Amino acid sequence: MTAVTPDQIDAAARAIAPHVRRTPIIEVPGDTLGIDATLVFKLEYLQVTGAFKARGAVHYVATQPVSAAGVVAASGGNHGAAVAYAAHRFGHEAHIFVPTTANPAKVERLVSLEANVHSIGHTYGDAADAAQEYLAEHDATSIAAFDDPVVMAGAGTVAREFEADAGELDAMLLAVGGGGLAGGAAAWCGDRIPIVGCETVGTASYAAAVEAGEPVTVPVSGVAADHLGARRVGQTPWEALQHAHAESVVVTDDEVLDAQARLWRLLRVVVEPGVAAPFAALYTGRWKPRPGGRVGVVLCGANVVVPGLGRAEPVSAGDA
Asked: What phi, psi does 303 have (nearest 5°)?
């Protein structure tokens, strides 16, 4: 695999700038949350399509050759929406494979972007297998969810923006699924800002890789299965995370659900359960910041069904 460099992330930032949002940050005194540190939240859930994935997909479609047969992606939902958005924006057909357990709000968003949606199996891995079968029979362009240097360079622009806007940070905490976001952050930050990868017990692919010394396949279950359930951390993210000596923290389903509820009560922020894993790691004390320190927390996706707020809003190709 090709390593992703800060120069490549700089180039990715320039390529995607006309098509994605520069998401804001907010600073929160930790004592209001029972934490002895200042928390700086990167509100990446405000990204087009509702998650960071738009960055990697747009970077790929904007800079790589795309077949006349269009693009194909397997996704728990967020990557699929990102690929559908990128394809729609650049005038390509999109075939998105999702598990039957995918969040309905994410599927609605795919439909609104005129993607061809194929619902197959119960996990991301099942959808990925079906996408490979489709690619064996069709001359389309595959866009990987996380294990691709072009996609990961796009994801790395989250950390690039975060550092530029937040200034000095003692650490950066991010959710890990396949590792594209955390790996991109590790590639950008190197040894300047410690990276902490946070997962649930039912989606702990990075923790398992750390224990085994290499990526391994893990069973997927629980409340974060549809968005963190990659089964296996990607080789490209793994190498970046290892090079940066990224820490691993695992929290329970109950803890992320509580963190999700706390984020709503305290900050009026709505995110997906697994997205709350970094905050759960902090408030449970599973990861402890330096007393009085300054900690960055990426909130990377918010494609959830909120009772009373209706259906998912469509995203137009010009909505950047």
From this structure: -85, 80
> How far apart are alpha carbons 51 and 300 in whole angstroms?
5
What would the two tokens of residue 245 be? 């000596």
In angstroms, the CA 182 to CA 163 distance is 14
Span 172-229, pLDDT tens digits: 999 999 999 999 999 999 999 999 999 999 999 999 999 999 999 998 888 887 777 7
Q: Which residues of 29-61 are buried (b: 16+ CB within 10 A; e: fewer)?
A: ebeebebebbbbbbbbbebbbbbbbbbbbbbbb
Cα distance between residue 142 and residue 124, in whole Å: 15
**Termini Cα distance of the chain:** 31
**Confidence (pTM):** 0.91
**Sole residue written with tokens 């017990």:** 201
Residue 200's DSSP bridge partners are 251
pLDDT tens track for 32-60: 888 999 999 999 999 999 999 999 999 99
Q: How far is CA 194 from the centre of its chain?
A: 18
- How far is residue 309 from each of residues 49, 113, 233, measured CA to CA in Å? 17, 20, 34
Q: What's the burial of 63, exposed, middle or buried (CB within 10 Å: 0-12/13-18/19+)?
A: middle
Grouping H, G, I as helix, E, B as strand and the rest as coil, residue 100 is coil
